Amino acid sequence: MSIKRKDEKMLTEAELELMAVLWKLGEGSVAEVIGQLPKGRSQAYTTISTILRILEQKGAVSTRKEGRGHVYIPTLRREEYEARTIKHVVERVFEGAPVALARQLLQTEQLSESELSELKELIGSLQKKSEAT
Fold first, then answer.
1. Phi, psi for residue 25 in degrees, rounded to 5
2. Alpha helix positions (H), 1-133
């Protein structure tokens, strides 16, 4: 089930970085999120707290009160955001042509033999599924 977001726009780079931390942790306080950021990263507690509150306003996270602080819980699933991002890129960059995205990916990325095999298997299973319908 997909939860309708207040803001279906793409996340900012800073928002996405914090969401990645929350997806990894499952949930976390501001201090726990800061603890997962790359070392040497100078982010003030108030800055991270503000970004997390913005994510809450956007419907990407929910909160629960714990002691004097809040714990942030992702409501936007990683897979849901990945799908939305791909759709956005296909529509905006590749003029609605997913094959153009796949072609560009295959031409610019050095995929290993196992990754290519995985793609072939996926295409094969999608073809079987399409033939069955």
1. -80, -30
2. 13-25, 30-36, 45-57, 78-92, 98-108, 113-132
Answer yes or no: pTM beyond 0.85: no
Q: Is residue 99 part of a domain?
A: yes
Say which residues have a Cβ less than 8 Å from residue 108's Cβ, sequence separation at least 6. none
Could you tell me if 61 and 73 are in contact, meaning their C-beta atoms sit under 8 angstroms apart? yes
Domain assignment present for residue 2? The answer is no
What CATH number corresponds to the domain at position 18? 1.10.10.10
pLDDT (tens, 9 = 90+) of the chain, 133 residues, equals: 444 444 467 999 999 999 999 999 999 999 999 999 988 777 899 999 999 999 999 999 999 999 999 999 999 999 999 999 999 999 999 999 999 999 999 999 999 999 999 999 999 999 998 898 8
- Retrieve residue 39's tokens: 């070392």
Same domain, 17 and 69: yes
What is the spatial distance between Cα 121 and Cα 116, in angstroms, rounded to a whole number?
A: 9
Residues 6+ apart with CB under 8 A from 101: 86, 89, 90, 93, 94
Angle made by CA atoms 117, 102, 88, in degrees to the nearest 5: 130
